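Prompt: I keep going back and forth on a fold encoding question. Comparing notes only helps if you start from a blank page. Show me how you would write down a chain together with its backbone fold. Please set it down just below, with no commentary around it:
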Amino acid sequence: MTGMDTGCISPYLLYQHAGPAMDWLIDALGFEERERVTAEDGVVMHGELTLGNGVVMLGCGGPNYEGPATRNYRNGFVHIYIDDVDAHHAHAKAKGAKILSEPEDQLYGDRRYECEDPEGQRWFFAQMRSGG
């Protein structure tokens, strides 16, 4: 593969409305758009967002898809390390992100907060502390 590091893990999330989800993730959580594949009817079928060196892929779950907000269940979280967790939290909160936990020092050394996007996907943003 060219242009991609081997061993790079990229979560792929499904959304009922992938286009608006991408727009929200860019605006509220600071992602940058790398790719957006749109069907003829305007529905985003696939998207790729970056944050630092990380990539999150997302797409349309299809007509029978029911996401976390619809089914009220969780099968995973996305955990992302960033340089300044407090500034990121302040930006996300100002943009209306649903904050589930405020930035807090964890027993294992990270400083972390949790938020939820409009379709119920959960996101952890953390900053490594010295020694981590």
Summary: The first helix runs from residue 18 to 29. The mean pLDDT is 90. Residues 12-65+76-127 form a domain with the 2,3-Dihydroxybiphenyl 1,2-Dioxygenase; domain 1 fold (CATH 3.10.180.10).
